Amino acid sequence: MRLQDKVIIITGSCTGIGKAIANRCVAEGARVVIHGLEQELGEAIVASLGSDKAVLHIEEITADEAPQHLVDLALKTFGRLDAVVNNAAMVVSSNTQTTDLSLFRKVMEVNALAPFALIKVALPHLQKRRGCVLNIGSLNAWCGEPNLMAYSVSKGALVTLTRNLGDTLHREAGVRVNQLNPGWVLTEREIQRKHEQGMADDWYEHLPLELAPSGRILCPDEIAAAAVYWLADESGPVSGQIVDLEQYPFIGRNLPKN
């Protein structure tokens, strides 16, 4: 049990990557705070994990008191807090023409400012446990797609936040901060988004090798498996690191010639 008795808050864990991380954490001995906006989905996860292993909080992550509510719930239910996984994110298609300042601010609030707010509230409790933070970013942080402009910028901000806090909090409070940058992942919402964009129901079964050399894209369970290492004590003193998770090198890739 690599996470035996640890208590972990996982934002955005009613679906997708967050849900997979929650399931894997409990399988490794942890207890988790499930968070999201989907009441029924969240209740189903808690029921499957067991009320002694999981508790649910439904609230918009940008609400002023959301970080305090999550931390208080962890302490009230399980008596301690060992780690935070900042996974909740606003994934929205937008480019230069379709992005106004209101949308940009909202994406930044969800994807970059909310993680900082939760870390700040959780920090005194993480310090007591010499705990850690794991931020879930995106490969889009390095430049982004034309139609994921605001999202990509927000994930770039999260990279800098992780590197900054991964240094300062490790030295000042003994709290490690690291980040995973997944590539293309087959979540429930990604399947739905692509369908809404006009793609066939089985679009993920017919991907070009340039995008998926293995013939498929990543699944949430594979991201969850990687997350366990960074939440476990076995990752030792490593902090301030950004780890890309994709099936090809994102920077300096040798694309096949036509």
UniProtKB/TrEMBL annotation:
Belongs to the short-chain dehydrogenases/reductases (SDR) family. SUPFAM superfamilies: NAD(P)-binding Rossmann-fold domains. The lineage of its organism: Bacteria, Pseudomonadati, Bacteroidota, Cytophagia, Cytophagales. It comes from the Bacteria. This is SDR family oxidoreductase. Gene3D superfamilies: NAD(P)-binding Rossmann-like Domain (3.40.50.720). PANTHER family: EG:BACR7A4.14 PROTEIN-RELATED (PTHR43975:SF2), ZGC:101858 (PTHR43975). InterPro entries: NAD(P)-bd_dom_sf, Sc_DH/Rdtase_CS, SDR_fam. Pfam families: adh_short_C2 (PF13561).
